[in-house]
Amino acid sequence: MGKGLEHDNEAAERRIVSMLAAGDGSALDELYALYAPRIYRYTYRMLNNAADAEDATQETFYRVMRKSRDLRADAAFRTWIFRIARNLCIDRIRQQPLVDLPMDATVGAPEEQTALHIAVRQALNELPQEYREPLILCDVEEITANEAAEILDLSVPALKSRLYRGRRALKERLGPAVEELPREKHRHPKSD
Questions:
Q1: How far apart (Å, rounded) are the C-alpha atoms in residues 126 and 97?
Q2: Could you tell me which of 13, 6, 9 has the C-alpha nearest to residue 80?
Q3: Can you tell me whether residue 32 is helix, strand or coil?
Q4: Which of 130, 61, 60 lies closest to 89, judged by CA?
Q5: Which domains does the chain have, with CATH numbers?
Q6: Within 10 Å of residue 110's Cβ, how many Cβ atoms?
Q7: pLDDT in tens, 114-167
Q8: Using an 8 Å Cβ cutoff, are 18 and 73 in contact?
Q9: Which of 27, 42, 85, 168 is a plausible cystine mate for 19, CB 3.0–4.6 Å?
């Protein structure tokens, strides 16, 4: 993403947050359109259950609405909303009995459900939460290290250490799975 586009997005976000803090209900709709897909993906990856992820996403926006009067346009909204979502996920995880949750194969387009995609998702879900969370935030949701560290209440060096260890553990788990995958045939467009 270019610097100009990134700056425009931040300016638009600040404008929408100011509108929401001033009581403009349409601003919540705009924030929902901007963030709901990312919050849902994040909560789904944390909870491994579509229904729980949907509930956590809705609860996240309910809490944003409840606290909208306290919002400041100069504050990092993205960090704040992901922290709300994270805390909701942690609460749900603590309430769940310790059982193996089945993978919900209904998320994503059919072409995304390749053997490699499934292997990566399973390996990611097997990682300890301390490694899984930084990987989801930084590598999947593409949140900066500084923002992810703030969301997770870690120092940036601690976050980077967890990212390194998590990536290494993910690679170790994927080694056998990647070797067992059938070679997929790639279709190349015909040249004229």
A1: 16
A2: 13
A3: helix
A4: 60
A5: 1-100 (1.10.1740.10), 108-182 (1.10.10.10)
A6: 7
A7: 777 777 888 888 899 999 999 999 988 889 999 999 999 999 999 999 999 999
A8: yes
A9: 27
- Left (φ > 0), alpha (ψ -120 to 50) or beta: where does 191 sit? beta
The model's pTM is 0.66
What is the rounded CA–CA span in Å between residue 172 and residue 108? 25
For residue range 8-47, list pLDDT tens digits in order.
Answer: 678 888 888 888 888 888 999 999 999 999 999 999 999 9
Q: Structure tokens of 77?
A: 């909204």
pLDDT reported for residue 176: 65
Residue recorded with tokens 């995609």: 117
